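Summary of Year 1 activities. Much of the first year was spent building the evaluation harness for sequence design. The harness presents a backbone, in tokenized form, and records the residue chosen at every position. We chose the following record to illustrate the format because it has been used consistently in internal testing since the harness was completed.
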């Protein structure tokens, strides 16, 4: 519970106070570090598990691989996957292969990511194809991304992200007829882009924000703070990545969708209300859009 709420220190304190620990509690703590991309502490716990003769299981290795993926530790992830099979005699499941696809994809090793999918002994699911599609979007690999997006739609015909990805690919290639086909398909299916929602708790009260939200009681203060933050980011070289929104939106709509993202609004409200140096916890229903800082 503490880990899911971002309270890693409290999670570790609760873990340390336990008189008896089993593979479930060890794996939960490893998973807590994994969510934050703290591969070092996750791996340290694995070694501590071994020293205390606690046998790892498949869940343990999902956490370890996930931690490596978040931290970008490709070689360490490869070693862990191999060790799971060779040293622990654990047969990889779909989620382990999914972690490897994500690990390679985030490192721009898209060929290796596809090879993992092709060599899986079971059929990849929509999450795995979606992971490859997301990596292709980040690194502008349109051909492989289109292939992955089509596999996503075969498994989930109502997947909004895959429709938008294909629409943007076709628009960039000026295949306007294909863009129209995708839009018509979305309309016929009733597919719309899932709206981002972010929540922040302050003084025991939950504040919820939507993208381009104008309904909060302190809306003027929030947008004023957001403008100030964005100005500072632009000075530092901030450039919004517009690949996550529909290509044929006008520039103003794209800017609003990116800069007025629900998470950014929640963050600015936290900056206004929380003490300097305190930790801001934001709960999201979607991943935040990718942003880029260039020097």
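For this record, the design step produced the sequence shown next.
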């Amino acid at each position: 519970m503490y880990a899911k709420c971002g309270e890693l220190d409290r999670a570790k304190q609760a873990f340390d106070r336990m008189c008896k620990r089993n593979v479930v509690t060890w794996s939960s703590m490893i998973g807590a570090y994994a969510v934050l991309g703290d591969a070092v502490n996750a791996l340290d716990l694995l070694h501590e598990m071994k020293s205390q003769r606690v046998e790892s299981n498949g869940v343990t290795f999902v956490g370890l691989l996930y931690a490596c993926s978040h931290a970008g530790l490709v070689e360490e992830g490869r070693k862990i996957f191999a060790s799971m099979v060779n040293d622990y005699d654990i047969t990889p499941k779909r989620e382990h292969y999914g972690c490897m696809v994500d690990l390679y994809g985030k490192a721009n090793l898209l060929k290796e990511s596809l090879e993992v999918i092709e060599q899986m002994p079971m059929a990849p699911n929509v999450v795995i194809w979606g992971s490859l599609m997301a990596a292709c979007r980040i690194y502008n690999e349109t051909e492989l991304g289109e292939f992955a997006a089509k596999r996503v739609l075969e498994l989930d015909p109502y997947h909004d992200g895959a429709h938008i990805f294909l629409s943007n690919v076709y628009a960039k290639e000026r295949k306007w007829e294909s863009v129209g086909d995708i839009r018509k398909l979305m309309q016929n299916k009733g597919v719309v882009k899932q709206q981002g929602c972010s929540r922040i708790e302050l003084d025991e009260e939950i504040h919820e924000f939507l993208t381009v939200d104008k309904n909060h009681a302190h809306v003027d203060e929030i947008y004023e703070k957001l403008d100030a933050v964005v100005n500072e980011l632009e000075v530092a070289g901030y450039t919004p990545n517009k690949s996550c929104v529909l290509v044929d939106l006008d520039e103003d709509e794209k800017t609003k969708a990116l800069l007025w993202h629900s998470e950014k609004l929640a963050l600015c409200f936290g900056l206004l209300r929380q003490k300097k140096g305190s930790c801001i916890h934001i709960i999201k229903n979607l991943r935040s859009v990718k942003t880029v800082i260039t020097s």
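The CA atoms of residues 139 and 177 lie 25 Å apart. Quantitative recovery figures across the full test set are reported in Table 2.
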